[in-house]
Design brief:
Largest sheet: 2 strands, antiparallel
Helix content: 25-40%
Distance between the termini: 5 Å
Radius of gyration: 11 Å
Number of domains: 1
Strand order of the largest sheet: 1-2
């Protein structure tokens, strides 16, 4: 995600819809990321659709969404 603010907003949005997610700190490896990610338990594709519907920008890194 491009900023910590979006990580927090995305986390609140998903938790309000019943997703278990936590904010994790990772190494900042790109200029487009903020160094934080959401670790989502459950159906990540549906969680990604929720984020897209609410205009929360994210990118996919490896086998996870960031």
């Amino acid at each position: 995600m491009p900023s910590y603010t979006y990580v927090v907003k995305g986390g609140k949005l998903l938790r309000a819809r019943g997703y278990h997610c936590e904010i994790i700190r990772n190494e900042k490896t790109s200029e487009s990321g903020c160094g934080y990610s959401l670790l989502i338990s459950g159906d990540c594709r549906k969680a990604a659709a929720v984020l897209e519907n609410y205009g929360i920008p994210f990118s996919i890194t490896g086998n996870s969404y960031a």
